[in-house]
Amino acid sequence: MTQNTNDLLTELLDREKIRDCMMRYAQSIDRLDSGLLETVYWPDAHDWHGDFEGNAYDVFEKIIPYLREHTIRTQHFLGGSLIRFVDSNHADVETYSQNFHTVRNGNGSPYDLIQGGRYLDKLEKRGQEWRIIDRIVMIDWVTQSAESYNYDNGVLGSAKAPISARRPDDLMYSFLGDIAATSQSGGAA
Fold first, then answer.
1. Which pLDDT tens digit goes with each residue over 25-43?
2. 1-13 pLDDT, tens per residue?
3. Span 36-55, mean pLDDT?
């Protein structure tokens, strides 16, 4: 069985749109950007994030304030995504991740927690847009240190090295603009 060129191009574009959706998730959760996060999930989506489970928008109304209160910074690093199309409007996706968190302990001192895992996603295409309709966050391993690196004096001998921040202070917003707006328009702001 062979695919015609148009079907093959559509599948390749859909795969890229799915990968873009995954990357928007990492950007939005690391910047605590709820506007960008809304471009990742459909309004009727389900998300199971450990103790947080339910409608994705409701889950993140709890997770974002929790992260803002208990973490200093996070970085969600995504690995490969295995994408399998159920049909032209539905895909099952497994994406590997390593997630770095600088967390405040009970007395406010920072420590680092690194978690390896996978996102098990069901995505749905509505119109020309792919978003998550159902997600389960799988934990494969976790490690933590007793304390975190002190960024007050810079990094690797440079006091001027840019350090990640949350929305709107992260340089991403001034350098790349509003990624949420560009994701909705297919790349043009």
1. 999 999 999 999 999 999 9
2. 466 999 999 999 9
3. 95
Residue 2, amino acid: T
DSSP, residue by residue, 128-178: TEEEEEEEEEEEEEEEE-SS---GGG-BTTBTT------TTTSHHHHHH--
Reduced to 3 states (helix: H, G, I; strand: E, B; else coil), residue 71 is strand
Amino acid in position 58:
D
Q: Are 39 and 131 in contact (CB under 8 A)?
A: yes
**What is d(CA 120, CA 28) in angstroms, rounded to the nearest whole number?**
18
Q: Could you tell me if 138 and 119 are in contact, meaning their C-beta atoms sit under 8 angstroms apart? A: yes
pTM: 0.85
The structure tokens listed for 163 are 């350090």
- Decide the pairing of beta strands 41-49 and 129-144: parallel
Q: Which residue from 77, 61, 68 is spatially nearest to 23, judged by alpha carbons?
A: 77
Residues in the chain: 189
Amino acid at residue number 66: Y
